Amino acid sequence: MPWRLVVVFFILAAAFCRPPAGAETVRVGIYQNPPKVFWNGRGKPQGIFVDIMNQIARNEGWTIEYAPGTWSQNLERLEKGELDLVLDVTYSQDRAEKFSFNKISVIESWLQAFAGKGVKLESAKDLDGKRIAVLKGAIQEEYLPQEIKGLLNIDFTLLPCPDYSGTVEALRKGQADVIIASRFFYFSDLRGKDILPTSVMFRPELVYFAFPKGRDDPIVNRIDRNLSGMKNDPGSVYYRSLDKWLGERPRVIIPRYVKWVLGALIGGLALMAIFGLVLRSQVKARTAEILQYSQELKESSVLLGAVFDVIPDILGIQDAAHGVEKYNRAGYEFLKCSHIDIKGKRCFQLINREKPCDNCATAIAIDTKKPARVEKYFENLGVWIDARSYPVLDEGGQVTKVVEHLRDITDQKQAERALLEKHQALLMLNQRLTVADEELQASDEELKQQLAELQASRDALLASEQRYRNIFENTGTAMAIIESDLTISLANQEFEKLSGFDRSQIEGRKKWTEFV
Predict the structure, then answer these.
(1) Distance CA 99, CA 209 (A)
(2) In terms of CB atoms within 10 Å, which end of the chain has fewer, N or C?
(3) Each residue of 169-191: b (16+ CB within 10 Å) or e?
(4) C-alpha span between 55 and 233 (Å, rounded)
């Protein structure tokens, strides 16, 4: 609808829906990204985030003033303090330097490539030479050139658009070959049958509310308190909204159509296996290509840093006085800070405590000089954590460093959340099978192409496994994988040389403490 009509709607809404005396007014920035957040043809704000925000406002007695704009306009107004918060913002370290984020994420997402029927994308390397339409100011505009280009040694052209309507228009007019958007673009009314999801996905991410940087505002804590309550209540507005817009909601029992989904999945896997036999020669060619690419990886120190960062659990290194020296990427994202923010800080200070936590695994490891493990609930963070600490001893037997391993086990403590995650996984499988079913209705040539794409996805997974196995064997550094009982389950060639033992004497037979 014309932009001026949207503005008129919000002006009239503000005039005729005045807040009651004493009600707190919260200015909220929204943009067009259905079904997460958008306004309809009458200018009414709608979407998952809007449903959640409206319920929080009812609980807290707030009056919401929604401010429509483009994505980049919302971030600019938030940075200037013209808005109290913006909905649907993915966390990144660069954004954390400009804005504050609440602690409890609203929803999970990832980036996915969408293209027309004539564009063939088997892996992320196929983005080479493509013209890619993205939302201006969104995380993909920064992530693609800064990380994907260098990592895969490919080149492409970005076409930033003010909104998702612009990305769709660019694709249909032939100005762009691919759209990179969040996974929720699949559910958007903007995506017609001519724009198909592909198997190219990357950067799993959490989505939050964003607030002006440095503002000591109780609104943030009140929003987190409401989110925590909603996510722990299967009948809340949170889950009703997911069901309304995405068809996602928690179930006490397994849905009736699960058998159909599993049957279709088994059939799809069998089909993939058949085509795997037919395309075995292509698998060999792809394996040779991956082996050649693995030889071009960075030096061992860079590689170890990359491995450290891709581990999904939180890993940290502390000194014997609880001073934090480093976290991996998952740690910085969990704490919503950067490597600059942790300088001179102790671990408990990063979660707003004045002294070490009770029953601290790191403190136990320092005192006993042995690995320690505890499970505890962090009330201020709203999560359960499985904390493990491993002391590093010098030649004199004194603790010099402590390796901290944290894992979020909240889902294990909340059966409803576990059921929801399983159900969401089934829906994702159903979504992929639905896409495959749509493509099977095309011509015989399209069928062959889709089957080839399924095989290519399998090839990429096998190649990825082989690549990381080669990295482990050829890193030039002695490496081993240690189980929770300290037994070495896997060792590379360098570890054999260093230890003087054959792998058959090490793996599953020796503990790593025998080599310290």
Answers:
(1) 10
(2) C
(3) ebbeeeebbbbbbbbbbbebebb
(4) 14
**Residue type present at position 70:** T
Q: Is the dihedral of CA 461, 463, 468, 472 positive or negative?
A: positive
Copy the structure tokens of residue 16: 């005729």
Q: pLDDT value at position 300?
A: 62
Strand partners, 487: 511
Q: Hey, how many other C-beta atoms are within 10 angstroms of the C-beta on 167?
A: 28
Contacts of 76 (CB under 8 A, 6+ apart): none
Distance CA 194, CA 118 (A): 10
Task: Identify any residues that bridge with 443 across adjacent strands, giving them in sequence order.
Answer: none
At 386 the three-state DSSP class reads strand
Q: Which alpha helices (DSSP H) does 295-348 contain, by range?
A: 300-310, 329-335
Report residue 136 as tokens: 């201006």
State the SS3 of 395-455: CCCCEEEEEEEEEECHHHHCHHHHHHHHHHHHHHHHHHHHHHHHHHCCCHHHHHHHHHHHH
Q: Is the dihedral of CA 409, 411, 414, 418 positive or negative?
A: negative
When pLDDT is averaged across residues 493-511 and rounded to a whole number, the result is 84
Segments of 274-358 assigned E as strands: 314-319, 324-327
pLDDT in tens, 396-448: 889 999 998 988 888 887 776 777 778 777 888 888 887 767 776 766 677 67
Whether the per-residue pLDDT at 68 is higher than 80: the answer is yes
Integer Cα distance of 122 and 463 in angstroms: 13
- 160 forms beta bridges with 134
What does the pLDDT read at residue 21?
42
Closest CA to 236 of 445, 30, 52, 58: 52
What pLDDT sits at residue 295?
66
Q: Which domains can be identified in the chain, with CATH numbers?
A: 3-107+208-246 (3.40.190.10), 302-408 (3.30.450.20), 478-515 (no CATH)
Please say whether the beta carbons of 441 and 435 come within 8 A: no
Output the six-digit token pair for 395: 């030649």
3-state SS assignment for residue 281: helix
Q: Residue 67: enclosing H or E segment and its boundaries?
A: strand 62-68
The amino acid that residue 426 corresponds to is: L
For the residues 194-218, what does the mean pLDDT come to? Answer: 87
Whose CA is closest to 193, among 439, 470, 463, 467? 439
